Amino acid sequence: MDVLICKTKYSGLSYHRVEEPARAVNEAGVGVRVTVAQGLSTTMSRGADSVVLDVDDQGADVVVLQLPKTVELLQCMRILQARGVAVVVEIDDLLSGVPFGHQGHGIVRSGLAQRAADCAREADMVTVTTPALRDEYARHGRGAVVPNAIPRRLAELPPAYERTSDVVEIGWTGNVLGHPYDLQVMGSGLEQALSATAGSSRFTVLGQKFDMQQRLGLTTDPREVLWLPEVDAYIQAIGELFDVGVAPLRIDKFNTAKSWLKVLEYSARGVYSVRSASAEYERLGLGWRAKAPKDWAKALTKAVRDDEWRREQARAAHQVVLDQHLTEHSVPLWLGAWQRAAENRATALRRGAVAVG
Question: Is the full-model pTM beyond 0.70?
């Protein structure tokens, strides 16, 4: 079976949902060849209202479209399916649920979120990161959950719990503008912990902190390490910078459907995590659950003061990642989804032939 995956321009999304899965499948030697491309080559009609006339499928049996959000891509899907090529739509966020105030909310206002739902509705298979996304985008029953995972080469780097330091680094990764309401769920908890462990703890942001000090009422402005766009370097840095990672999420429709990636990355690098009680973090089962500011304060204070306990917890979570959550572990899930897509397309064509006959 030949699979062509058309990735999005966003490096983080493509890394975890396209490039690393493709690498793992190709290296598994299971008789499936996966090719990754930046978009599809098409032939368009001329004029203001141009439409797609033809699509180059590169000889693939299955074409995977990551986050398709345009009418043109829906037209591409229909052309491919008509010639017998199965189409898989890959989605890893609830696009219709991006909250107002989030830097990505324009995807809702512009109608692109609805276009993505249209594409998913006509797909031969939809692959997603969480059960909530499957329920949203695969109501037709043609859906598969393939959770996010971590490449072995990163999970086997020297873990954070083997490092010694007089100052425990508490950290968060991300862009504050992409989490306009999430950090605030910690309330005063982070400041309480930093105050209680003053001199032996520090808070660092790997990314863009913007006005985080004001948002969280912190006495000291967090240290900022600028975002690393190359994903391998970013994940490696997590284990070199942090001893404890925080993963706060406001429990809303968008975040309930969100994957467990941040806590997974922390755990893969031997960083102990304190996290919200979101559905996916609960399903992953790693890290300390925090619901109220007092929970964040207690967990973070304990993690700083009890060095041996923190290391043991981080070591155990790291082992779970090595045993269950490597990219290579997800190979059968990707293969199964693509094979089901091909079967669904063949069935649809047979039914169409019978109807015409």
Answer: yes
